[in-house]
Amino acid sequence: MHRRSTLHLCALSILLSACSGTVGHSGKAHTIDSSEVGYRVLGIAQDAGMPHIGCDKENCTRAREHGEAARVAAVAVQGRSGWWLLDATPDLPAQIHDMGSMPRGIFLTHAHIGHYTGLMYLGREGLGAHGMPVWCSARMEAFLRNNEPWSQLVELGQIELHVFRTDQPVALEEGLQLTAIEVPHRDEFSDTHAFHVEHADGGSLLFLPDIDRWSKWNLSLIDFLRPGAHLLLDATFYSAGELPNRDPAEIPHPLVQNTMDLLQPTLDAWPNLEDSSPSKPLATVLGPPRIRFIHLNHSNPLWDHAGPEARDLRRRGYHLAQRGAFHSF
């Protein structure tokens, strides 16, 4: 795995205009406890961010007026020996600054702009990285190796490509592993994967920011509702008709309403888990699954945290992912 040198730390501080510490959503420094294993949310917006280019609708106007730009969806998996980045977004410099150090490796879900184009900051014009491990599928590896400007990162040794195999775990460190799971999505340039991170103590994370339809998947989302599970799920659109000038067939995603309806019976049937005594069964010790929505399009009404859609989301036991929030396994 990647070990940064003093030179790279200096280059990083120049690139990010930061000397030390970690900056969270409030802009204030915070400290990451490396003894805790879990994940930190680094962004929650769909690929083009929010406010969105060319948009003067209420969500984007409000965000511009209040300086509330949202970063593109990405997650840091925190282990005891360092951290790993899930997706390299266009906001990569700020997101690495939020973590205060370079990741031990980067895992890419697919080749849409919000999920890999942050790699450009590792090149000559940016960090000038050396041997940053980048894990991806075989098709994604071929895309990066054979298309400019990404091929230059490979040729100059700035990134070191590693191919993961679908459904085959990759050991991050002792007691912490990641498995890539293929999901159906618009696969123009590469296939698409979700990431299932599992900790030896029983906790887990499913990072699934993009999928076309749950019904097209050869797996059942309900099967991931396990004790101690955290699910970060595709919330691109809350309901149909958010983009009246776009053909929904071009940008298929499951609606947040439909996802909640799919999972609700299982969540409602979950046992009462208030007593987390170690003597209780595993389901009680680890707690119920936590479902948070991520990858919101700028049109999504959930951006209004006080709106009826957000209130209904919370009432039903679901939550929005929050940038800067850390959740332990």
Jot down its keywords.
alpha/beta, seven-stranded mixed sheet, Metallo-beta-lactamase, Chain A, disordered N terminus, 329 residues, 9 helices, 16 strands, globular
Give a brief outline of the structure.
The longest helix has 13 residues, at 256-268. With 329 residues, the protein is an alpha/beta fold.
Description:
The protein is α/β, with parallel strands linked by helices and 329 residues long. It has a single domain, classed as Ribonuclease Z/Hydroxyacylglutathione hydrolase-like (Metallo-beta-lactamase, Chain A, 4-Layer Sandwich). It is 22% helix and 22% strand. The chain contains 9 helices and 16 strands. The protein has helices spanning 6-16, 58-65, 92-99, 113-116, 138-146, 150-155, 256-268, 282-286, 308-315, and strands at 22-23, 29-30, 38-43, 74-78, 83-86, 105-107, 132-136, 159-163, 170-173, 176-182, 193-199, 204-208, 229-234, 290-294, 319-320, 326-328. The protein has a 7-stranded mixed β-sheet with strand order 8-7-6-5-4-3-16. The chain has a 7-stranded mixed β-sheet with strand order 9-10-11-12-13-14-15. Strands 1-2 form a two-stranded antiparallel sheet. Strand 11 (193-199) and strand 12 (204-208) form a beta hairpin. The longest helix has 13 residues, at 256-268. The radius of gyration is 19 Å and the shape is globular. The two termini are 22 Å apart. The relative contact order is 0.14. Mean pLDDT is 85; it is low at 1-31 and 273-279.
